[in-house]
Automatic annotation (TrEMBL):
<feature type="compositionally biased region" description="Polar residues">
    <location>
        <begin position="591"/>
        <end position="600"/>
    </location>
</feature>
<feature type="compositionally biased region" description="Basic and acidic residues">
    <location>
        <begin position="763"/>
        <end position="773"/>
    </location>
</feature>
<keyword id="KW-0677">Repeat</keyword>
<feature type="compositionally biased region" description="Acidic residues">
    <location>
        <begin position="752"/>
        <end position="762"/>
    </location>
</feature>
<dbReference type="InterPro" id="IPR011989">
    <property type="entry name" value="ARM-like"/>
</dbReference>
<dbReference type="Pfam" id="PF00069">
    <property type="entry name" value="Pkinase"/>
</dbReference>
<dbReference type="GO" id="GO:0004672">
    <property type="term" value="F:protein kinase activity"/>
</dbReference>
<comment type="function">
    <text>Regulates COPI-mediated retrograde protein traffic at the interface between the Golgi apparatus and the endoplasmic reticulum. Involved in the maintenance of the Golgi apparatus morphology.</text>
</comment>
<protein>
    <recommendedName>
        <fullName>N-terminal kinase-like protein</fullName>
    </recommendedName>
</protein>
<feature type="region of interest" description="Disordered">
    <location>
        <begin position="13"/>
        <end position="34"/>
    </location>
</feature>
<feature type="region of interest" description="Disordered">
    <location>
        <begin position="586"/>
        <end position="639"/>
    </location>
</feature>
<keyword id="KW-0963">Cytoplasm</keyword>
<dbReference type="GO" id="GO:0016192">
    <property type="term" value="P:vesicle-mediated transport"/>
</dbReference>
<dbReference type="InterPro" id="IPR016024">
    <property type="entry name" value="ARM-type_fold"/>
</dbReference>
<keyword id="KW-0333">Golgi apparatus</keyword>
<keyword id="KW-0175">Coiled coil</keyword>
<dbReference type="GO" id="GO:0005793">
    <property type="term" value="C:endoplasmic reticulum-Golgi intermediate compartment"/>
</dbReference>
Length: 806
């Protein structure tokens, strides 16, 4: 019937590449590239065509087919599928390249490193040890043509055509009949007398010596050339001479040869071989060993071959994260290996893992992701950022650990260009407002202001008008001096986003107030920025036609291109703030010199002064001013021309110790958090905000100044008002008609940043709770008094000496 006539080659699930054969080992096999029809994955296909009159070769090919199909070992060519018909034999293996072709290609690209050759030879010797010691088989064909290399650079032993049993039950070694292969036979094979005493591995170890010579010196012209080691490394020469010795009895077993080469100072004793051996046994290693290995791995990856990193290290890292609970330690080597991948491979292999990592509750992993976001942000598309990453990242703004809060703020510089309208202009601004107003860490408030200045160009025109002026004005009232500098430089970084009216009525009044700031660095930046804004106003005043050009970005839509100039301003501003901030952060509060203590903003007379920063050495006011002046002069001269070379003032130095010491951050309050960083100016949060309220900074910093309307007609001057006497009852209060009334509670301004009166709500909530608790205590007290009175009334007075039974 028709199905008996089907062609098995056509139905084979693999197809040969139209490219010409790569050339396999000498003999009947030809090596072709191929692919799997279903998936398109690359494979290698060894093809043997059955010819009439070549029954002996056909039997050798069928024996090789059977051996390769049944032998499974990591260092032996991996069998995938096969096809045996009357006309041909097909053996499908993993995609490999003949060793000779591989060495030639690498030589043209600069050659193989010694560590790569040491690991390749290690794999071949290990395969021979498996065959001889575990399977009692003699390979009988070890040579350059029998070794193949996969895409990871791993060497695989093939060429099993002439293999035979060492026990002799399958007959003697098969005849090769190929001169190119017979030149690798040891000299004792020519001596057929029984006097030749040898071990079962002696012949294969001689051929291994030939392979080592060819790897370092090229093709072996004749057996006599083995006497000259040539380019073989000195650390290997001694062991090589044992292999090619005339006495087969002294040739070492493959296992002992490996042991000798792995000795300290040996050819195979190096970091590359140790890394490979650990990866082969990683599934049975203890968690502590895995942690240590991954921590040290990233230091060695730079010296490892690129193919090895992509195809062997990367799968192990992904597996360790997915199934091995390796945690955050895999991130550094993972992103380092990711540099070797193409954009498409990165999207397929790395990004899914990164997205999954962001949903982890492990704080160590979250802070590592935030610190290294720059390495993978370019591979993330906007839908992924907005739906799968940003919702998890924003939790860091509310974290109890200051290092995570700060890294979350810094990550917004990278995420902002990819955020949608809601996440950027609403959600993010809400968190920034809360951090700038209520965070107890001065550097975090400072970096929040800095970040806002850098991402200002991405905000919508409405959000810019509502947020920037209020936020930077609030920063100028911060008790932490670098935050005040950040507020001033924030105005400078976004100078093109303000109208001339805002510059004159809102910004310059705020900046002028800073010209008498206690900190010289704040005063200097205030003067620079005031001159910049005055020059703009003066140019528009001289030539009013420039107004449209100067204000072209004020109402423009958010555009990444507009952030170029602002980024340079902000970069200059950020590093200037950071040098001081990082010094304050790195110093321990108990050992910090008094001159590094940041001066607090002065409070108006009559108000209680905020608690002073704790210092080991009491410092007088005059001494403080002298030290501050000297320090400022030295810092200004040292950092004048290297703003962009410095890093942000950050808590990164403390992050690692925080993660190592902390057991459960989520259950610790802000007062006793492990790794909490103290600053000299960090007083309790309540005292900080009390001092701000004393200055009126909440109203001035967050609300737009409202113009006072003139009183209505008919209102009498204050001098004509009868202040002492009684007014007739039929007259109304003349002040009742005024549109602006002083109020004890500030009015919520529709233009305020967060549009939420968080403090008012919290204060009111606390008052309500206190009132309820007081009422409950009063009710309880009344109940107790009533019960006592009732007992006395029923029992009467107790007699002297009577015992109270109840």
């Amino acid at each position: 019937m028709w199905f008996f006539a089907r062609d098995p080659v056509r139905d084979f699930p693999f197809e040969l590449s139209p490219e010409p054969p790569e050339g396999g080992p000498p003999g009947p096999w030809t090596l072709h590239r191929g692919r799997k029809k279903a998936t398109g994955s690359a494979v290698s296909i060894f093809v043997y065509d059955v010819k009439a009159g070549a029954e002996e070769q056909t039997q050798v090919a069928k024996a090789a087919f059977k051996r390769l199909k049944t032998l499974r070992h990591p260092n032996i060519l991996a069998y995938i599928d096969g096809l045996e018909t009357e006309k041909c034999l097909h053996i499908v293996t993993e995609a490999v390249t003949p060793l000779g072709t591989y060495l030639k290609a690498r030589a043209e690209a600069g050659g193989l490193k010694e560590q790569e050759l040491s690991w390749g030879l290690h794999q071949i010797v290990k395969a021979l040890s498996f065959l001889v010691n575990d399977c009692n088989l003699i390979h009988n064909n070890v040579c350059m043509a029998a070794v193949f290399v996969d895409r990871a650079g791993e060497w695989k032993l093939g060429g099993l055509d002439y293999m035979y049993s060492a026990q002799g039950n399958g007959g003697g070694p098969p005849s090769k009949g190929i001169p190119e292969l017979e030149q690798y036979d040891p000299p004792e094979l020519a001596d057929h007398s029984s006097r030749a005493v040898k071990e079962k591995w002696s012949a294969d170890m001689w051929r291994l010596g030939c392979l080592i010579w060819e790897v370092f010196n090229g093709s072996l012209p004749r057996a006599a050339a083995l006497r000259n080691p040539g380019k073989i490394p000195k650390s290997l020469v001694t062991h090589y001479c044992e292999l090619v010795g005339a006495n087969p009895k002294v040739r070492p077993n493959p296992a002992r040869f490996l042991q000798n080469c792995r000795a300290p100072g040996g050819f195979m004793s190096n970091r590359f071989v140790e890394t490979n051996l650990f990866l082969e046994e990683i599934q049975i290693k203890e968690p502590a060993e895995k942690q240590k290995f991954f921590q040290e791995l990233s230091k060695s990856l730079d010296s490892f071959p690129e193919d090895f990193c992509r195809h062997k290290v990367l799968p192990q890292l992904l597996t360790a994260f997915e199934f091995g609970n390796a945690g955050a330690v895999v991130l550094t080597p993972l992103f380092k290996v990711g540099k070797f991948l193409s954009a498409e491979e990165y999207q397929q292999k790395i990004i899914p893992v990164v997205v999954k990592m962001f949903s982890s509750t492990d704080r160590a992993m979250r802070i590592r992701l935030l610190q290294q976001m720059e390495q993978f942000i370019q591979y993330l598309d906007e839908p992924t950022v907005n739906t799968q990453i940003f919702p998890h990242v924003v939790h860091g703004f509310l974290d109890t650990n200051p290092a995570i809060r700060e890294q979350t703020v810094k990550s917004m510089l990278l995420l902002a260009p990819k955020l949608n309208e809601t996440n950027l202009n609403v959600e993010l601004m809400k968190h920034f407002a809360r951090l700038q107003a209520k965070d107890d860490q001065g550097p975090i408030r400072c970096n929040t202001t800095v970040c806002l200045g850098k991402i200002g160009s991405y905000l919508s025109a409405t959000t810019r008008h509502r947020v920037l002026t209020s936020a930077f004005s609030r920063a100028t009232k911060d008790p932490f001096a670098p935050s005040r500098v950040a507020g001033v430089l924030g105005f400078a970084a976004t100078h093109n986003l303000y109208s001339m009216d805002d510059c004159a009525h809102k910004i310059l009044p705020v900046l002028c107030g800073l010209t008498v700031d206690p900190e010289k660095s704040v005063r200097d930046q205030a003067f620079k920025t005031i001159r910049s804004f005055l020059s703009k106003l003066e140019s528009v005043s001289e030539d009013p036609t420039q107004l449209a050009e100067v204000e072209k970005d004020v109402h423009a839509a958010s555009s990444p291109g507009a952030g170029g100039a602002a980024a340079s301003w902000a970069g200059w501003a950020v590093t200037g703030v950071s040098s001081l901030t990082s010094k304050l952060i790195r110093a321990h509060p108990t050992s910090m010199p008094s001159e590094t203590t940041v001066t607090q903003r002065p409070v108006p007379e009559g108000d209680a002064a905020p608690p002073a920063a704790v210092s080991d050495t009491p410092t007088t006011s005059g001494h403080w001013e002298t030290q501050e002046e000297d320090k400022d002069i030295a810092e200004d001269s040292a950092t004048a021309d290297r703003w962009d070379d410095e890093d942000w003032g950050s808590l990164e130095q403390e992050a690692e110790s925080v993660l190592a010491q902390q057991d459960d951050w989520s259950v610790k309050g802000p007062g006793n958090r492990a790794g909490q960083v103290s600053h000299p100016d960090h007083r309790p949060l309540e005292s900080d905000w009390n001092s701000w309220e004393a200055e009126g900074s909440w109203d001035q910093g967050w609300q737009e100044p409202s113009s006072v309307e003139p009183p209505p007609e008919g209102t009498r001057p204050a001098s004509e008002y009868n202040w002492g006497g009684a007014e007739p009852s039929d007259k109304g209060d003349p002040f009742a008609a005024l549109s602006v009334r002083p109020s004890a509670q500030p009015r919520p301004d529709p233009d305020s940043w967060g549009e939420d009166s968080w403090e008012g709500v919290e204060a009111e909530s606390r008052q309500v709770k206190a009132e309820l608790a007081r009422k409950k205590r009063e009710e309880r007290r009344r109940e107790m008094e009533a019960k006592r009175a009732e007992k006395k009334a029923t029992k009467g007075p107790m007699k002297l000496g009577a015992r109270k039974l109840d």
